[in-house]
Design brief:
CATH class of the largest domain: Mainly Alpha
Strand content: 15-25%
CATH topology of the largest domain: Multidrug efflux transporter AcrB transmembrane fold
Oligomer: single chain
Radius of gyration: 31 Å
Helix content: 40-55%
Number of strands: 19
Shape: elongated
Structural class: alpha+beta
């Protein structure tokens, strides 16, 4: 290819966009020497970086029922009989936030003149997303990097499990961070050691940073805001228990996973206020000095992130050592290189022309660079995404072969007008094929299957990059080459 033809080729907008994207991708990936070998901006999941995963099971059930009793009275009586928090989803559906069997629910409903229609272990997707948000917040507040949280939801819309993957974290650390997540509750002392439920953690709307109260004093505390419903529940509990008239002998307990993490008498100012109205702004005092500040910092985490609306238990766990992760990285690189070599050999046997084979290999390899750069922003590379990248190599070369075969019909190089007509026809075939792949991969990308989503997303991105960028660029490049 002479200089004039080359300059004309790279001035074409399709080739120019392709080259700009390759350069930008290399800048984004930024491969450079690091303290322990080559480093980059790529994010690696626990498969390649080592780490741990934990799967939590929701201790709850979603049931449908029918009864002739008034709904509010039926639910109130059921709460009392089962000693459980029950959320009304609709007129015939309840979320029982307690680990209960189908037989228990059926017998208790029968005793209340109700009938159980269906039973599903788990929670509604809305509750599961609340738990996911809380767990993510706690993980982030503790400074844990490269963590992914997935809600695993069945086709019936009921979420039974929550999966947490933490790259670079040992199993002991992972269980310390996540495994102790549980139900957060505030209770008020009624008389003696007896307590009464006030509200759960999902009533806490916002939490302030630990601060001195009053300002510039040595006393520390954490301010937080509860919902309007929570404020009404607090006032009702404080009045009915007599705490508003004798606050010193009526403590408020904050309980996480059955363990009391904070207990203090109702404040006199708060007690006086609750006699006449509700209040949403509360302050938990933790004491003076360094100890008070440390307690305030710990309480802030519990208030902000430990408030799961349902209890959970560890249903499964696993880990990948850092050494094994490094081995996986090495073999993934080797697999990609061998895939490129195999592709190169196959198309060389078909065309016997280096001027055709080399651009095809270049385009194929450059797609991987572009996809790696895109993944650096929002996807962690694990074995599933690597499998998707290798799959893109295969589907990509298929489409390049379609373009080349359409152009070289009967082994002849067509005239420019006929070339463009054949290229347009080849791209039409490719677009139809790409649409099929996108439709096939879409369910895997949107379903809560953590191990397959990365594969589906990378495959879909590879198809889009190919159709929008690399296939048109290849058509223009091969035109310049074949014209000579």
């Amino acid at each position: 290819m002479d200089k004039a033809t080359f300059i004309e080729m790279i001035k074409d907008y399709r080739v120019a966009v392709y080259l700009i994207l390759i350069i930008a991708s290399l800048i984004v990936i930024f491969p450079h020497p690091g303290p322990s070998g080559m480093s980059s901006n790529l994010q690696f999941g626990l498969d390649l970086d080592g780490g741990s995963w934990i799967q939590l099971e929701f201790q709850s059930a979603v049931v449908t029922f029918k009864t002739d009793e008034p709904l509010e009275q039926f639910v109130t009586d059921l709460k009392t009989r089962m000693n459980a928090e029950i959320d009304v989803i609709d007129q015939k559906t309840l979320e029982i936030r307690k680990g209960v069997s189908e037989e228990d629910v059926r017998s208790n409903m029968s005793a209340l003149k109700g009938e159980l229609i269906s039973y599903n272990s788990g929670v509604t997707k809305e509750t599961a997303n609340d738990v996911k948000r809380i767990v993510e917040n706690k993980i982030n507040s503790l400074g844990t990097q490269d963590a992914k949280v997935y809600v695993i939801t069945g086709l019936n819309g009921i979420s039974r499990y929550l999966r947490i993957e933490m790259a670079g974290v040992s199993m002991a650390e992972a269980q310390e961070i996540v495994g102790k997540q549980g139900k957060f509750e505030i209770r008020i002392h009624t008389q003696g050691n007896e307590t009464e439920h006030v509200l759960f953690g999902d009533s806490i709307k916002s939490v302030a940073n630990p601060a001195q109260n009053p300002p510039n004093s040595n006393e520390w505390g954490v301010s937080f805001v509860i919902s309007e419903e929570g404020a009404k529940a607090l006032q009702q509990a404080a009045v009915s228990s007599g705490a508003v008239k004798d606050p010193e002998n009526h403590y408020l307990d904050m309980i996480l996973d059955g363990k009391t993490i904070y207990s203090a008498p109702l404040g006199e100012d708060l007690a006086a206020e609750l006699q006449t109205k509700t209040t949403s702004n509360l302050l938990a005092s933790t004491g003076a000095g360094e100890e008070g500040r440390d307690q305030a910092a710990l309480l802030e985490i519990h208030l902000r992130n430990g408030a799961l609306p349902v209890e959970v238990k560890i249903a499964g766990s696993g880990s990948v050592s850092a050494e094994l992760g490094e081995q996986f990285k090495f073999w993934c690189v080797i697999a990609a290189i061998f895939a490129l070599i195999a592709v190169g050999i196959s198309i060389f046997i078909r065309y016997r022309e280096p001027a055709i084979v080399l651009p095809m290999i270049m385009i194929n390899a450059s797609e991987l660079i572009i996809l790696l750069a895109i993944s650096a922003f929002f996807i962690q590379l694990d074995l599933a995404t690597i499998a998707g990248l290798i799959a893109v190599l295969g589907t990509g070369i298929d489409q390049l072969v379609i373009i080349t075969d359409e152009i070289l019909h009967e082994g002849k190089v067509p005239s420019p007008n006929l070339y463009l007509k054949r290229l347009k026809r080849a791209l039409g075939i490719i677009v139809a094929s790409a649409a099929t792949v996108l439709i096939a991969m879409l369910p895997l990308a949107v379903m809560d299957l953590s191990t397959l989503r990365g594969f589906a997303i990378i495959t879909m991105l590879g198809v889009l990059v190919g159709v929008l960028v690399t296939r048109p660029a290849y058509g223009r490049i091969i035109m310049s080459i074949l014209s000579k």
